[in-house]
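Colleagues,

For the teaching module next term, I've prepared a clean inverse folding example: a structure given as tokens, and then the sequence designed for it. I'd like students to try predicting residues themselves before seeing the answer, so please don't circulate the second half yet.
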């Protein structure tokens, strides 16, 4: 990718042109969230979690809160990966303290309740948030749009909730792969439409979250993770050639290079279990890399946080790298520890 004027202004975008930046750009997954008192106040004002996601004014506000507080190099749209099944017509709700609840779809018979034609209203509300953010963010701050990858979203749709082993989706995929493929196809098409709308509304980059990619065997990973993601990347790139596309196949460090080659993403996020040596190898090939600080180390703080931050920055110096966590900020994190991390990263100019 070429370094356009926008890429030069927005430090976050430069690694996606293969450029090393010192100190590295930084943003954090779930940087807008319950660890911030200002988020909790806005969340209470919104009512339900989905009401917050679908309220452009309030969703933009919580997206901006960590930018005001910490000056991150990128903001990520405040929303949720389950907006897609909700917009398609599956009932989605969030139980306080329990997480998402969906009316499960466990076979091809349940697919009749899903329709891409249903999505315009809810997708449009999210994209209004993107429009507001594209106007409100500082010029130097990039805006990241996102969706959940088809496999990960399908696991929630089949189980009716989050699960430790994604059993319902895995069993369906084994017992009726052609039927399960129909669900994946619906989600792939919806994701293409959704991401394209976000880009049209002003997103500068997109990230595809495949949080449960690590639960699959190698051949199933190729079918349910790589193939649909490759289709999304190809379609988005045909419509928006200059937009960086980031993949996050969490838990799949052993297959990360296969994922990059198979999907043609511009960069990857790496979870905490991904060795720095693999991150270095990927970045040396010219692909941007994000990650992989343990979110619980951010909870602990102190000298241990400083040491690991320095070690990551040293390992990735001179390479196209964006500092991030290996997963999202957890609610018990001290805002002061986040400030300490940002300050520490920004003194690393090796």
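(Answer key — instructors only)
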């Amino acid at each position: 990718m070429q370094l356009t004027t926008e890429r030069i202004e927005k430090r976050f975008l430069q690694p996606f042109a293969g450029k090393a930046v010192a100190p590295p750009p930084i943003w954090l997954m779930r940087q807008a969230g319950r660890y911030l008192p200002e988020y909790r106040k806005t969340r209470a004002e919104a009512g339900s979690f989905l009401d917050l996601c679908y309220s452009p004014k309030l969703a933009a506000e919580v997206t901006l809160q960590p930018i005001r507080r910490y000056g991150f190099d990128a903001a990520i749209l405040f929303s949720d990966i389950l907006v897609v099944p909700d917009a398609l017509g599956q009932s989605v709700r969030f139980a306080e303290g329990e997480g998402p609840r969906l009316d499960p779809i466990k076979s091809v018979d349940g697919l009749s309740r899903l329709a891409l034609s249903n999505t315009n209203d809810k997708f449009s509300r999210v994209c209004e948030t993107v429009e507001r953010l594209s106007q409100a963010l500082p010029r130097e701050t990039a805006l990241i749009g996102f969706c959940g990858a088809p496999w990960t979203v399908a696991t929630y749709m089949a189980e009716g909730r989050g699960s430790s082993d994604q059993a319902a989706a895995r069993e369906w995929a084994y017992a009726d792969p052609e039927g399960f493929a129909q669900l994946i196809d619906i989600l792939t098409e919806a994701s293409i439409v959704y991401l394209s709308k976000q880009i049209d509304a002003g997103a500068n980059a997109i990230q595809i979250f495949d949080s449960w990619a690590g639960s699959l065997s190698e051949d199933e990973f190729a079918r349910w993770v790589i193939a649909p993601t490759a289709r999304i990347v190809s379609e988005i790139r045909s419509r928006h050639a200059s937009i960086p596309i980031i993949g996050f196949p969490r838990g799949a460090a052993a297959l990360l290079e296969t994922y990059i080659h198979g999907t043609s993403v511009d960069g990857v996020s790496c979870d905490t279990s991904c060795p720095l040596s693999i991150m270095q190898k990927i970045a040396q090939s010219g692909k941007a890399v994000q990650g992989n600080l343990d979110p619980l180390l951010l909870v602990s703080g102190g000298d241990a946080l400083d040491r690991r931050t320095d070690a990551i920055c040293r390992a990735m110096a001179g390479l196209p790298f964006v500092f991030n966590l290996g997963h999202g900020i957890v609610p018990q994190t001290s805002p002061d520890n986040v400030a300490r991390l940002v300050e520490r990263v920004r003194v690393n100019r090796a």
